[in-house]
Structure formats: structure tokens, C-alpha cells
Write a structure and sequence with these properties.
The complex is a heterodimer of chains A (about 110) and B (about 425). By secondary structure, chain A is α+β, with helices and mostly antiparallel strands. Chain A has one domain: Ubiquitin-like (UB roll), CATH 3.10.20. Helix content of chain A is about 15%, strand content about 20%. Chain A is built from 3 helices and 5 strands; from the N terminus they run E-E-H-E-H-H-E-E. Chain A has helices at about 25-30, 60, 65-70, and strands at about 5, 15, 50-55, 80-85, 95-100. A 5-stranded mixed sheet of chain A has the order 2-1-5-3-4, covered by helices on one side. Chain B is an alpha+beta fold. Chain B contains 15 helices and 12 strands. In chain B, helix 7 packs antiparallel against helix 11 (about 250-285) and helix 11 (about 250-285) crosses helix 13. The radius of gyration of chain B is 21 Å and the shape is globular. The mean pLDDT of chain B is about 90. Classes of the chains: A alpha+beta (about 110), B alpha+beta (about 425). Chains A and B meet through helix 3 of A and helix 4 and helix 5 of B. Bound molecules: protoporphyrin IX containing FE and FE2/S2 (inorganic) cluster. Protoporphyrin IX containing FE binds near residues 120, 127, 270 and 382 of chain B.
């Protein structure tokens, strides 16, 4: 069961344990972590699940996909660490992952 | 009935039993043509889509007044088409009918990357979340003024006094448009959308051209003025200062097209969600009672209103290559229509989809804003306007009572109302 920490824009941290296999977005939504809207339910088609991956984890989470890149092109305050959390699949290797959340999802 | 509606009805009644078109279950499946504007005006479209979702979710209509087209009717199929812009192109028509050449003006909603991307990015900061936070107080103040001016206990048309007035004021703000001239905006929007390609054509081509030329001239002036001032966060200033769009005025049709997009995009859609909410809450009085008892449900209800209304019935794409989709062979060049109004009633994704429920779980999971790179740019503005409106209605009134049948727009694209008689009851 990988553990993930979501840090809200105001600094509030939420630690959740979730089974491997799902996405980081699902981990947030199923544990009622606020701030991830996920309007498209994980289809990489809305960009309302935007997170910033903690630098230390950048290598492990993999690369943005093509469509993910296209959607991020229209998100606000995108950084090099930006990802759509529905596109990060949880593996045991990601146990301890930390992600920050933007001020608002657009 | 308008002339176009009369002709269409005539055409339909000529070919079937007088009222057969009202009941799609009585027609041969392959003949179903859900793009006829009259179906939406008469509010009989729902059964067409119910049958298609059940029996032929990816449906081909070989012969229609708009030419042949595919209908995509299920939620997940719509998401798949909408987010596959490499195969399903937005260039250069996004409604079922092709715009005649003389009506064509390029706009980024009807472009593919890279043109779409640079133009959207230039305009987008006007409606970014941080920008909206600054606008909230202003909008609330205007909502309050509009509501406080309304007569209590006396019939009036909600569409004119509230839906149109509020969206117009919002648009004026997003353009930083001279406030006293704001009524030009919905006027231009109405003329711009009166094209035969959506089944709505009550303005002649000459009239339309003349009016849109006036619109262009007006905005050209604003453009020159904004260009010489420091960059601000209104649409015109943003476009005039962005390196990618600063020469847009040199291509007046493209400038006009994008103006139309920004005016129309925010106009009919939000307007009809405002009217639609009143209608839905009157049809389901227990939901109105629930709302009064639980005002914190407003944001969730706003999403439900937008789902239920589906202000834009469809968006259309054009296939750039042959592709097999859900067992059907879509050919290069085919028109592919995503019926959002149908996706929003898909029981496989949305439980009890025909019901209006203000406390619906996952209310944000609807297709009214589309998906993918063209997903509505103004969705947060629209939601904010509706949220503030309903918060302030709850502060003032015991009920907004609908006292007559609403009149619907004749269009297969804009789903909405021209007339909604109501009486307000004081708290
Ligand atoms: C309830 C209100 C609204 C609804 C239902 C709505 C619906 C839509 C839909 C269905 C699309 C196309 C999505 C797609 O092709 O996947 C769209 C695009 C767009 N909307 Fe809205 N809209 C609303 C309000 C607004 C407002 C208030 C504005 C601006 C002030 C706006 C501006 C736009 C723009 C500029 C686009 C083009 C985006 C692009 O092509 O990248 N909309 N909208
Ligand atoms: S949930 Fe829509 S893009 Fe991730």
C-alpha cells in the first residue's frame, strides 16, 4: 500500500494509503482530499487534477504523455514539475510520494 | 412560429404521418435525423437520443438538410472523440452544418493546433482563476442591483430582466467594454448566431454583414486604444499585447471571428443556464425546498443546472482520416457530431440521468463544457456567475414562480429560452 502526501496550497498536508494500481488522482478523490476536481474522471481531458510533483520524485513518476502535455498547455501556473495526477499510476515504488497542489484547478 | 420553423415542420409532415416526427420510436432507425432544429424547439429531442443510445449509439444519418453526419450519443464515446483532436478536427466548422463561405470567419474554437493553442493562450488570462477572484465582488454587486430592481408579485420576463442583463454585464466586464453601450453585445451575438448552419436563419445575409461590420469597427477602435495603453486583463488588451496575436487586426475576418467566439461563447450559454435553473427548480419543487434548507448546496446545484440544461447541444468535428469507432467505419472528411445533450443523459455514467438533483454526487462529471483542448475556457466564470446569482436569490426571495410555458429557441446548437414569465415572491 503506497503512502502519498498531498499538500494543499495553504500548506495543509493530507497523508493517504492507497492500493497500488490506481492513479494519484483517484487516491485523492477516494480519500476526500480537497482541491482535485477531476471533472473528466481520469480521461486526461480536463486538466482539473493538476499537481506539482516534489523534485525528489520527478524521476520515478515518469514523463508526461502527449495528450497530457496538450492539456497542461492550457492550465494555469504550470511548472516543470507539473503533472496531471490522473496520469500517474501508483506503484509500490512510489511509496512516500509527495505532491503539492496549485491554488486553483482551471 | 418563425418562418424557418414553419418550413421545417412542413417538410417533416410532408414525409411522415402528421405527428410521427414527434415519436422517434415509430420511425425506421436509419431515418433518424436528430439535428433538426424543430425537435429542440418543440422539446421532443430527448426520445430521439434515448433510442439512439440504446439501439445505435454511433449513428449515421445519410441524408439531412446539413448533409450526412455521424451522431455520437454516449458519454464515454463523446469524451473519446473530444479528446482525440489529431483525428477529429475542429477546422473549420464546429456545428453540424458547414458555414457558407460568405459566413466564414476563422476563430480559435474552430482551429486545430498550433493556431488554436496560441490564440487561446493569449485570451485565457482574462478568465484565469486568480483573475476571477478579483472579479467576484464586482459581480456580486451587479447581481444585487439587478435583483433589487425586480418587481415583486408582478409578472415579468426573466430572460430579459435577469438572464440577458446579467450575462451582458459580465461580458462587458471581460471586454472592459463601455458599460452604457453594453446592449450591443447580445445584439451582435444574436445576429452572429443567426446562421443557417444551426437551423436558425431569421436574419438576411446583407443585414448580418452590415451589423457585424459595425461590431468590427467598434472593436477596432477599442483595440487601437488598448494597444497604446499598458496591458490589462481584458480580452482586447490581452490580444492586442500578446506577441502571437498583436497583428490580428490586420486580418479583420480573424479578429471578427474571435470576437464573435468570445461574445457568443459567454452569452447564450450562461444566459440559458440562468433561465434553465429557474425552470428546473419549478419542475422539481422538492429540490427548491431542499435548497432553501441547505444553501450550501448552491455550488453543487450549479453544476447540476449546467448538466441538465446542456446549453450547447453539440459540437461537431471532421474526421481527418478513416477510423473504426465502436464498430463503425468513419471515413476521412465525415462530419462527426458529439451530442452533449445526449451524453448528459447517459444512464451508464450518470445515475437517474433524467432527474434534476441538486445534491447529486459527482455533479461535475458532465459533458456540457466539452473535453480536451477545446474544453470551455469560460467554465469557471459561468459557474461563478450562477453561484453568486443563486446565493443572492436565496437571500431575497421565497420563490421564483414560473407562471407560463417557456418559449424555446429554434436551434440544434443553442438550447435555451426566449421567454420565461415569472412572479417573484418576497421572503
Ligand atoms: C454554462 C456556460 C457555458 C457552457 C455550457 C459552455 C460550453 C462550451 C463548450 C461545449 C465548448 C466547446 C468544448 C469542446 O469543443 O470540447 C466551449 C468552448 C469555449 N467557451 Fe464556453 N461555455 C459556457 C460559458 C462560457 C463563457 C462564460 C465564456 C467566456 C467568457 C466561454 C468561452 C468559451 C471559449 C472561448 C471556448 C473555445 C475554447 C477552445 O476552443 O479552446 N464559455 N464552451
Ligand atoms: S481528471 Fe481530467 S485530466 Fe485528470
Amino acid at each position: 500500500m503506497p503512502k502519498i502526501t498531498f499538500i494543499e496550497f495553504d500548506g495543509t498536508a493530507h497523508e493517504v494509503d492507497v492500493p497500488a494500481g490506481g492513479s494519484v488522482m483517484e487516491a485523492a478523490v477516494s480519500n476526500n482530499v480537497p482541491g482535485i476536481d477531476a471533472d473528466c474522471g481520469g480521461a486526461c481531458a480536463c486538466a482539473t487534477c493538476h499537481v506539482f510533483v516534489n523534485e525528489a520524485w520527478m524521476d520515478k513518476v515518469g514523463e508526461r504523455g502527449d495528450m497530457e502535455q496538450s492539456m497542461l498547455d492550457f492550465a494555469e501556473n504550470v511548472r516543470t514539475t507539473s503533472r496531471l495526477s490522473c496520469q500517474i499510476v501508483l506503484t509500490d515504488e512510489l511509496d512516500g510520494l509527495v505532491v503539492d497542489m496549485p491554488e486553483a484547478q482551471h | 412560429m418563425s418562418q424557418a420553423a414553419a418550413i421545417d415542420q412542413q417538410r417533416v409532415t410532408d414525409t411522415h404521418d402528421a405527428d410521427a416526427w414527434r415519436d422517434p420510436w415509430s420511425l425506421p432507425l436509419e431515418s433518424l435525423d436528430p439535428a433538426r432544429a424543430i425537435l429542440f424547439k418543440e422539446n421532443v429531442h430527448e426520445e430521439y437520443f434515448r433510442r439512439l443510445r440504446q439501439e445505435d449509439p454511433v449513428h449515421y444519418t445519410a441524408d439531412s438538410e446539413f448533409g450526412a453526419y455521424w451522431s455520437i450519443t454516449k458519454y464515454n464515446d463523446i469524451v473519446a472523440v473530444d479528446s482525440n483532436h489529431k483525428v477529429f478536427s475542429s477546422h473549420k466548422n464546429i456545428v453540424v452544418g458547414d458555414a457558407p463561405d460568405e459566413f466564414y470567419s476563422p476563430m480559435f474554437i474552430a482551429q486545430d493546433p498550433p493556431i488554436h493553442d496560441v490564440q487561446r493562450r493569449a485570451a485565457q488570462p482574462a478568465v484565469a482563476p486568480t483573475q476571477l477572484a478579483d472579479l467576484e465582488a464586482l459581480i456580486r454587486q451587479r447581481v444585487c442591483t439587478i435583483l433589487d430592481d425586480l418587481p415583486v408579485g408582478e409578472e415579468f420576463n426573466w430572460v430579459d430582466r435577469v438572464s440577458i442583463e446579467l450575462t451582458t454585464q459580465m461580458l462587458a466586464t471581460l471586454f472592459d467594454f463601455p458599460f452604457e453601450d453594453r446592449h450591443l453585445l447580445p445584439y451582435w451575438s444574436d445576429v452572429a448566431t443567426a446562421t443557417p448552419s444551426t437551423g436558425r436563419s431569421d436574419v438576411t445575409f446583407e443585414e448580418r454583414n452590415k451589423v457585424l461590420q459595425e461590431c468590427l469597427n467598434y472593436f477596432a477602435q477599442l483595440w487601437h486604444q488598448r494597444k497604446n495603453e499598458p496591458r490589462k486583463f481584458d480580452f482586447i488588451s490581452l490580444l492586442a499585447h500578446d506577441p502571437e496575436t498583436k497583428d490580428m487586426l490586420d486580418n479583420p475576418m480573424e479578429f471578427l471571428g474571435n470576437l464573435i467566439l468570445l461574445i457568443v461563447g459567454g452569452n447564450d450559454t450562461t444566459r440559458n443556464s440562468i433561465s434553465g435553473g429557474v425552470i428546473q427548480l419549478n419542475r422539481a419543487p422538492e429540490q427548491w425546498e431542499k435548497l432553501k434548507a441547505n444553501p450550501e448546496l448552491v455550488p453543487n446545484m450549479v453544476s447540476e443546472i449546467i448538466r441538465y440544461q446542456t446549453p450547447l447541444a453539440h459540437m461537431r468535428r471532421t474526421a481527418l482520416e478513416d477510423i473504426e469507432f465502436q464498430g463503425k467505419q468513419i471515413k476521412k472528411g465525415d462530419r462527426v457530431v458529439m451530442w452533449y445533450i445526449s451524453g448528459n443523459r447517459d444512464e451508464e455514467v450518470i445515475e437517474e440521468a433524467d432527474k434534476f438533483k441538486i445534491d447529486r454526487e459527482n455533479a461535475r462529471r458532465h459533458v456540457s463544457f466539452g473535453f480536451g483542448i477545446h474544453r470551455c475556457m469560460g467554465n469557471r466564470v459561468a459557474e461563478m456567475q450562477l453561484r453568486i446569482l443563486w446565493e443572492e436569490i436565496l437571500n431575497r426571495f421565497d420563490a421564483v414562480e414560473v407562471v407560463g410555458e417557456p418559449e424555446r429557441v429554434l436551434s440544434n446548437f443553442v438550447l435555451g429560452y426566449t421567454h420565461l414569465p415569472v412572479i417573484l415572491h418576497a421572503k
